[in-house]
Specification:
By secondary structure, the chain is an alpha+beta fold. The chain has 2 domains: about 1-85, no CATH class; about 95-145. About 35% of the residues lie in helices and about 30% in strands. It is built from 1 helix and 9 strands; from the N terminus they run E-E-E-E-E-E-E-E-E-H. The longest helix has about 50 residues, at about 95-145.
């Protein structure tokens, strides 16, 4: 369920805000009365800037997605989201494509590690099977004598 964020000050029903990201929190300032609200956005892998991606407007309508636990912003003029900056694991600003590529590399590394672990386990099973076959052959020869 998605809810529109509305100013909570008595007598104000504003739903347009100026946004600023500060210390992993999204600071919302009501366009009508100037009230300020903070929302935790530390779980995002990007930082929202104060201007629209398309038209450079600085006023947004904000939505709270209760199911996905996320805050979404739309420009009041054109409907586009705000500009976003992506930060890699080392804290360096990168493009979305570079961030995606880095995430894919990390995933490939994890998969490679899992395959290596599986290969080692298969080798151990093969050696165990050889030992069992030799033991059975020895027991079979001992029983036949």
């Amino acid at each position: 369920m998605v809810q529109t964020i509305v100013c909570k000050k008595d007598g104000c029903n504003g739903n347009e805000f100026h946004i600023v990201t500060e210390d992993n929190k999204l600071k919302l300032t009501c366009n009508d009365c100037g009230s300020t609200y903070y929302y935790d956005v530390s779980y995002y892998e990007f930082v929202m800037l104060s201007s629209c991606k398309k038209c450079n407007n600085n006023t947004f309508k904000l939505f709270n997605n209760l199911e996905k636990q996320g805050i979404y912003a739309k420009c009041t003029k054109c409907g586009y989201p705000p500009e976003k900056i992506f930060i890699d694991d080392e804290g360096i600003q990168v493009t979305y494509e570079a961030k995606l590529l880095q995430d894919m590399k990390q995933l490939m590394y994890k998969i490679d590690q899992r395959i290596c672990n599986l290969e080692m386990k298969v080798d151990g099973l093969e050696k165990g099977q050889e030992l069992l076959e030799e033991s059975l052959a020895y027991i079979n020869r001992y029983m036949s004598e």
